[in-house]
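Newbie here. two chains, one complex. Structure please?
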Amino acid sequence: MPTIAHLKRGQRAIIKSFEVENVPLKLLEMGCLPGNEVMVVQQAPFRDPLYLNINGSHLAIRKETAALIEIELL
Amino acid sequence: MARQINVALIGNPNTGKTSVFNRLTGLNQQVGNYPGITVEKKQGVCKLDRGLKAHIIDLPGTYSLNASSLDESVVIELLLNKNDKDFPDVAIVVADVENLKRNLLLFTQIKDLGIPTILAINMADRMKRKAISIDIEALEERLETKIVLLSSRKNEGFSSLKELVVNYSQLSTKPCVNASVISPEYFDRLKKVFPNQDLYKLWLVITQDVNFGKLERGEVQGIATFKTESKSNLKRLQQKETIARYQFINGVLKETLTIDTANAKDFRSRLDRILTHKVWGYVIFFGILMLIFQVIFDWSSYPMDFIDSSFASLSEWVKNTLPPGDFTNLLAEGIISGLGGIIIFIPQIAFLFLFIAILEESGYMSRVVFLMDRIMRRFGLSGKSVVPLVSGTACAIPAIMATRNIESWKERLITILVTPFTTCSARLPVYLIIIALVIPEQRVLGIFSLQGLTLMFLYLLGFGAAIFSAWLLNKFLNIRSKTFFVVEMPNYKVPMFKNVAITVIEKTKSFVLGAGKIILAISIILWVLASYGPGDFNEASEIVTQQNSASNLTEEELETKIAAFKLEKSYIGIMGKAIEPAVAPLGYDWKIGIAIVSSFAAREVFVGTLATIYSVGSEEEETIKNRMAAEVNPVLGTPRFNFASGVSLLLFYAFAMQCMSTLAVVKRETNSWKWPMWQLIAMSAIAYVVALGAYQFLK
C-alpha cells in the first residue's frame, strides 16, 4: 500500500491507516487522522523532510514518519 | 486590596498567544523560570473593571494536553493541580482563526477539566481576506461558552475579552466530549475504584509521563494499577480520544464555519514556492545569514566602541576624582571595567535577538528548519540547531539561549555543548594580533592574502569542530529521547513591532542579570589577584626605582616598568609562574600563561593582559604587536612569537573553552554544573593536545 513517502508534490491522497506504535500522537492531534486529505506542498532535497498540508494544517515531518502513514491516492 | 483572579492563557503555538498576552499586560510582565526547570514562566497583571485585577499566566504553547515536552507538561501539571497558587479561575484558549479546527482540540480538553473556558479567536482581521465566516452565536451555543473575536494587530476585541473575564463565574463548566465513550469498559473499572473522582482528570494522570509530585498523594493513589495496561493499548485509547474529539469538532464546525476557498487569496503558497525551493531556498537563506553577520559585526561595532570608551573614561574619571586607595581602585579597575565587560555584549545580543525575533514572528524560521533538517540530522543535530550555530559566530551566549525551541533534549544538549566551538567575536582580536605576528604578508595565487585565508580557515575550523564533536556526542551520549520531528509551518505574517521589542528587551535583560552577575564576580576576583601579592609586590616601586637608577628613564617609562614588576609578583603572576611548566611544551612562557589564565573570564582579555605584562602604556595594536614581536625566548634566543608558537596559540584559542559567561549560561540552560564542567574539561583538553602537537611538530 502506498504511504505519504510515495506522494509526489501536488498529489492528493486520503489517509487510510498508520502504525499505531511509531506515529507520534502529536501528528494525530495536528489533524493526521484516517479519512483526512493530505497533499505534499514542498519537499526538501532527497524528499526529506516533507512539507504537507493535512486537512488544512501545514506541517513538516521526516520521511521515516511519512513512510508509516498509509494512503489511498485520489 | 483589589480582588485578584487567576487567568491562564492557553493555546497552540503560532496562534499569537504571546501578542494577546502583551496586549493585556503591556510591559507589566515578569519572565522567570518554573522552579527546577528551564521552562520560561511568563506572568503579568491586567486591570479589569469593578476593582478586579487579573493575574495572567502565559502558559507554554501546546497542541493538546498530551504532553510530549517539558514545556507542555508545565501546562497540564498546573491544570490538574487545584492547590497550586496559580490554578486558574478561568482559562482563555487562544485560537487562530485559520486553524480553528485544530485549535478546538485543545479547547475541548481544557473545557472537559471543568475549568470555565473562554474561546478567544485571534487574528480575526484575516477573516475577510481568507473568506472565512463564523456563526459566533451558534458556535457559543454548541461549545457552551463565550467567544470573543480578537485582533492583536488592530487592538480589537480586548475590552470584550476583559468583560468576559470579569463575569467568568457565569460560564458553563459542562464538558464537551464524554471521554468514557472511547472505552466504556475501561472507564467503568476506573469509576469503581475512584467513585468520587473526575474520570477525565484520572485519564490524563494515567496517560501522562509528567511529574505529578505536586499533586496530592491521595488523589493518585492506586492509579498505578491502571498504568499496567499495556503502553500501546493506552496509546490506542489516546488516539481514539483524539478521533472522538475531532468528530465532535467537525460536527460543530459544519454548522458554524464556512470557508470560501475560491475567494481565499493564497499568498503563502507563492512565497513557499520560492523560500523552500531546492536551490533558491538555500540561496536566500545564506543571503539572509550574510546580512545578519554583516549587521552584527558592523553595526554593533559603533555602540560597542562607544561603550568601551565611555567605561574607560568613567573609570579614569573615578580614579581622578575619588581619593586614591584600595576602594577607588576596586571601583575603577574591578567593578567599572567588569560592568563594561557585560554591557559591551548588549549591542550584539540585542541585534541578534532582533533578527531572530523577526525571523520567528514572520514564520520564516520554520522554513529554515525544514530546509536544514536533513543535513543537520546526520550529525545528531536538528534542523532547529542552525540558528544557534550561526548565532555562535557573534557570541555563544545568545546562541545557547536560542536552543530553547529544540524539542528533543538530546539534540538540544548536543547543540548547547558544541556551539562554543564556533568562532565568536571575542576570539577575533586574539586571532588578528597573532596572525599579524606570525603569518607572513604574502599573497596566494596573486589575489588571496595569506593572512585572510588563515582567518577564514580558523572560522571553518570552528564550524568543523562543532559538527565533528556533535557527531561524536551523538554516538556516545546515551540519552534516550524521542527525536520525533513534527514542525508546524505557520502562515507568513508581518512581525508586530511590540512583540519584537518585548523579546529583545526580555532576552537582553535576562543576559545582563543572569550571566552578568558571574562576569562581574570574575572580573573582581581577577582584579584582586592582579592587584595584590605577597613579599616583593609591596615594595615594587622602591625595587624597580633602584634597579633602574643608572638608566635615564622618564617617569612614564618607570611607571610602566613598575606596573610590569607588580604584575609579575602579584598573585596572578605567581599563578602564571606556577603553570609555566604546563604551558612551556606548547611554546608559551609565564606571561602568555597569565594571559591565558585571565582570558578564562573572557577571551578578549588576552590582548589587554599582554599589553599590561609587556608594559606597553597604550593598548594600541601596533605597539603591542611590535613589543610582542621583539619578545625573545631566553633559552633558544629566537623570537617568542614564531610560527610554531603562534600557530599553537591560534589553535589553543580555537578550541579552548575560555569564557566564564558561556559556562554560566550553559549552567542555567542545562540546570546543572555537570555539563558546563564537562565542556570546560573536554574543550581545554582538546585545545591543549592540539596546541601541543602543533608546536612540537612545527618547532
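Moderator note: The beta strands of chain A are 12-18, 37-43, 50-54, 57-61, 69-73. Helices of chain A lie at 25-29, 63-66. Thread marked as resolved.
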